[in-house]
Structure formats: structure tokens, C-alpha cells
């Protein structure tokens, strides 16, 4: 049950963020109005409505972009609009046009992420793009999904098409969802091989790496709590050793010590071949992973492992303390 109180700016401004996940609070003045409070401190007004046998959460907006009185005033309107049955439009629309509308209305990604998504749509869903949505059948969708190489991509495209058709029904361009009849593509998820004992062996193997640049870069994958693309693109100008910060993120003590021992004689922290930045040293990484006894380990596995065991905190000081605790725990296993 959500914690109930009278919403006012002073209380909402000072609501504590949970350590992980999100909390839900409810307004006493307008009991239908609720708010999500995430572990990153984001506060979002929403209402609940049972539609078609399913409990739906309808977002009103983020606080304080939407103030309390505006949120209360929108509750009835939002619930009334959600209860309306979509009117089926007489004009037809192509799948390509509807997809563009769906991406603009429902998908929130970075610019690079949106480019990647559109590239995947153009490559894998081209067989549906020029068809009218109302004319697309179950067999049409099956034929397209079955021709997508790789179960992981096929599963994602299937889920995307299903979401697009849900949007088509909501906006009145379709009466039914042909993807709802399909069996979900079976996806064999990769089991990440890294454990705490494995990361101890990995650190020992990295310390034996003869190249000081690669040795530091590989250790930064562990101590920096960041993916390889961000680690290899580190600039000295982004680092603030006085406040233990890397841009907007805190640095662990181990990362600070590691970075301060490197020569600061260029733009990039990890530079090779005449001060060019390090890109993707796969051959060297495979050698290190094999020496650690984990030959199928990827650099992405390291980042996933560290973030999975890190206790998230919204305050930089608390997050930095949690980083140090995890690094100390790993180092203690090697004693």
C-alpha cells in the first residue's frame, strides 16, 4: 500500500529516495493521484486505471515540471480519456508511417540509440514497411520474424512490432494485434561467467600484463564502474582529483590511485600509437581472460558484474562509499 499524505511542495521536495527500485506515495487530497520516487530521485505523478482487464499506470508528468495543482487537475481528464474506446479511423496508414509516429510518441532514447533502433527496423522489418497496417496479417508478421537471423534480434523485433500494433489499436488504426497470436521467439540468454573468485584471478592476470597502458585500462574497467567505451574514451580534462570526480560520476579510491600514477602528457588518459585513444584491444583482452581461466569472458561482463554487485545511491558521496566497499571486498578475497 502506498504511503498517504497531503501533497505539498515542501514534503515532495524533501522526499528521500529509496536505496534501490522505487517507492509509491499517494495524495490524500486527490486519492487517485500517486507518485513514483525512484532511487535516482526522480518524482513522477501517475494514476491507475483498469482497462480491458489489465491494471495500467498512466503517467501525468514529472515533478516539478508538473506542479501539484496541475497534476490534481489532470487526474479526471486522464482517467476519462483512458476509458474511451479508440475510434477506428477510415483512412489507412502504412506500417512505415505508423512506426515513425510510434517512435516519436513512445520511445525515449539517446540520439545514438534512436539511430541504432531505426537502422534495425530498416534492416529487419522492411517487408512490413510499405503495407497498410490494417492489411497486415499473422502470416505476414511470422514471415518477417522468421527471416531475422539470431533469436535475440528476432525476439526484440517481435516485441517491437507487438508494441507498434498496440499503439495502432490505441490510436484507431487497427482492430486487432496479429503478433498477440504468435509464440514468443525463444532466446537463449548468455550466462555471464564472472564470479567473485574469478574477478580476483582476473585482477592478477591484468597485473601481469606487460603493457602499462593496457594494464591500467583493464583495471579501470573494474575500478571505474563504467563500460569499455567510456573507459577507453576518458580525457584528462574530465577528471577532478580534488573532488574525486570523473565528469558527473564519482571515482573510487582505487581508480584515483590508478589514474594518478599515469603520465598526463596528452588529451586521452589511455593513448597509444602517437597519442591516439585506445579503441578495442580484443586480442590483448582474450590473452588476459585466458590467463585468468575465463576464456569466454568479455569486457562487458566485467562492467555488468561490478554494477550488479554495486549498491546504488543517488548522492555522489554515498555512491563513492559503496564503490569503495565493493572494491575492498574484492581485494580482501585475494588476501
Concise structural overview:
47% of the residues lie in helices and 13% in strands. With 335 residues, the protein is α+β, with helices and mostly antiparallel strands.
What attributes does this structure have?
about 325 residues, 5-stranded mixed sheet, 3-stranded antiparallel sheet, 14 helices, 3 domains, globular, DNA polymerase, domain 1
- The helix content, as a percent range, equals 40-55%
Report mean pLDDT, rounded to a whole number: 89
Low-confidence sequence ranges: none
Distance between the termini: 46 Å
> How many helices does DSSP assign?
14
Q: Kindly report the spatial arrangement of strands forming the biggest sheet.
A: 1-2-3-4-5
Describe the structure.
With 335 residues, the chain is an alpha+beta fold. The protein has 3 domains: 3-83, Integrase, DNA-binding domain (Double Stranded RNA Binding Domain); 95-181, Tyrosine recombinase, N-terminal domain (DNA polymerase, domain 1, Orthogonal Bundle); 196-332. The chain contains 14 helices and 10 strands. It has helices at residues 9-13, 68-83, 95-106, 111-124, 126-129, 138-146, 151-171, 196-207, 212-223, 228-232, 253-260, 282-291, 299-309, 316-332, and strands at 3-5, 22-27, 34-38, 43-51, 54-63, 239-240, 245-246, 249-250, 271-272, 276-277. The strands form 3 sheets. Strands 1-2-3-4-5 form a 5-stranded mixed beta sheet. The longest helix has 21 residues, at 151-171. The chain is globular, with a radius of gyration of 25 Å. The mean pLDDT is 89.
Amino acid at each position: 500500500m502506498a504511503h498517504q499524505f497531503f501533497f505539498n511542495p515542501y514534503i515532495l521536495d524533501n522526499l528521500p529516495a529509496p536505496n534501490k527500485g522505487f517507492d509509491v506515495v499517494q495524495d490524500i487530497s486527490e486519492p487517485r493521484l500517486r507518485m513514483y520516487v525512484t532511487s535516482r530521485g526522480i518524482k513522477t505523478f501517475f494514476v491507475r486505471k483498469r482497462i480491458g482487464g489489465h491494471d495500467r499506470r498512466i503517467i501525468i508528468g514529472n515533478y516539478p515540471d508538473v506542479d501539484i495543482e496541475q497534476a490534481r487537475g489532470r487526474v479526471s481528464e486522464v482517467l476519462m480519456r483512458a476509458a474511451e474506446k479508440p475510434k477506428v479511423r477510415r483512412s489507412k496508414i502504412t506500417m512505415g508511417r505508423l512506426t515513425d509516429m510510434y517512435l516519436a510518441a513512445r520511445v525515449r532514447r539517446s540520439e545514438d540509440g534512436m539511430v541504432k533502433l531505426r537502422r534495425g527496423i530498416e534492416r529487419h522489418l522492411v517487408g512490413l514497411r510499405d503495407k497498410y497496417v490494417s492489411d497486415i496479417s499473422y502470416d505476414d508478421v511470422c514471415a518477417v520474424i522468421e527471416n531475422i537471423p539470431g533469436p535475440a534480434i528476432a525476439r526484440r523485433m517481435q516485441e517491437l512490432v507487438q508494441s507498434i500494433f498496440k499503439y495502432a489499436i490505441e490510436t484507431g488504426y487497427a482492430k486487432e494485434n496479429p503478433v498477440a497470436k504468435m509464440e514468443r521467439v525463444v532466446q537463449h540468454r548468455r550466462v555471464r561467467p564472472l564470479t567473485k573468485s574469478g574477478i580476483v584471478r582476473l585482477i592478477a592476470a591484468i597485473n601481469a600484463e606487460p603493457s602499462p597502458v593496457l594494464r591500467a585500462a583493464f583495471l579501470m574497467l573494474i575500478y571505474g564502474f563504467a563500460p569499455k567505451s567510456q573507459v577507453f574514451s576518458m580525457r584528462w580534462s574530465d577528471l577532478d582529483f580534488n573532488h574525486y570526480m570523473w565528469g558527473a560520476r564519482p571515482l573510487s579510491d582505487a581508480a584515483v590511485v590508478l589514474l594518478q600514477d599515469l603520465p598526463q602528457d596528452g588529451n586521452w588518459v589511455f593513448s597509444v600509437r602517437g597519442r591516439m585513444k585506445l579503441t578495442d584491444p580484443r586480442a590483448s583482452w582474450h590473452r588476459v581472460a585466458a590467463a585468468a581461466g575465463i576464456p569466454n569472458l568479455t569486457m562487458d561482463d566485467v562492467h555488468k558484474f561490478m554494477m550488479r554487485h554495486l549498491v546504488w545511491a543517488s548522492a555522489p558521496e554515498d555512491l563513492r562509499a559503496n564503490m569503495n566497499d565493493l572494491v575492498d571486498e574484492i581485494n580482501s578475497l585475494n588476501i
